[in-house]
Amino acid sequence: MTICKVPTRIVDLVQAEGVDTLFGIPDPSLFAMFLEAEKRGMRVISPRHEQGGALMADGHYRMTGKPGVICLNKGPGVANIAAGAIYLAKENVPAVFIMAQRHRLYEQRVRRGKMQYLSQPALFEGAMKYVGIIEYPEQVDEILQEAFRRAVSGVPGPTYVELPLSVMQAEMDLPPVLTPDRYRLSHQRASDRMAAEAASLLQKAEQPVLLLGQGAFVSRAHEGLTELARKLACPILTTSSVEIVALEGLEDRTFPYGSPVSSEIVAKADVVLAIGTELGETLHYGRHHHWQKGRTDRKWIYVERDPTAIGVNRPIDVPLVGDLRDIVPQLNEVLAGTSRAVPAEMPEWTRAHAAQKKELLDGVSTVSSPIHTARLAVEASKALPKDVVIVRDGGTSGMYFSALFQGTVRDAMWNSNYGAVGPGLPYAIGAQLAVRDTRRVVLLTGDSSMLFHVSEIETAARCNLPVVCVVAVDHAWGI
Hints:
single chain; alpha/beta; 6-stranded parallel beta sheet; 18 strands
């Protein structure tokens, strides 16, 4: 048993989750927590605006798989984060928002003119998976653990913990904090029966296809996915969120969904293995458009954390419910010894896709003045190092950067679910925090999007984060 105060205990609980970075603007409500975190070697990143901090936590999560922890000042600080919370909810990002609050007695006080006081929880109930208020110091463990439990379970998302000043100074005699596997489900493989059915379908398939989304890369499952893709020897389709990404060594068999070649691949496919993606609107719900061509009786195997998502947008033949970080190795186990030949059509698909990209490239003006965004996309992407992390932002500029990107990368991010412009610079800062000095993060964006959070350039400079920003400037909103 150890004697500690609430801020110290919160740092204990956060570290137990493997989190090493806090995002938040310093305030007396948070000083004790931040000082304790820094004393232990954790990083405290202070953005210029609270919303920027939430988006940095998002970018950091996409490169580490670790939930974000964002600490907010009472009143205006909490209010400023509302848009950031909605971003994370729409992008399925697990995060715990620790919201400071004035003493609890203000909750029922009828006096007017209360300084920095808001009734905060009601403002966030629609965006948060869980809202908890630490009314008594003895609740700190159960409420923080519930916040992490909900954030990372099922479809990931943000949770809310309110921390009133009235509980901050209490001293408690507490045992060591529990590790995550002691209080929540931290690993989840699919059932053995479903895994065996999936293996049987894949081994008998004539033309399987692997469909990969952002979740496959956020989970840092690159190595296991590469092993699985090599076993299946099939084409790989990437969703719009990661359409410039390819697993190492598999570039020549990776095609963005929606491209002409991918349409032909889908038409021939008799088994689809979908990993790390919602079967949502940008994939035509797995039922319409490209999926209505060719072998419409194709079978679907779906790796999904949320059991309530199975069969909603389309029927699923073999649901593999659980964490892809556990299920991908499980599939590699049940497919051990599997040997398939690469489809005879693969060289032609690769050639046709390269020809389509060249046709786009040939249409780009090389003499435009000022430089056209299409040409900027081509020239900038040619100059990037091989191991770069790409962050895409902007409306039309983002489309040019995607369509005319030269080559492929191992990691890229874009807020594809929410579809907003402006989060790119904070994303890039969070991503650079994650990779430290081992890789360079490059933001591809437009001038209007860049200006949403341009003040965070100071954050990058102050934190020694050498993010590269490529900005298409036309001094205008819109297309």
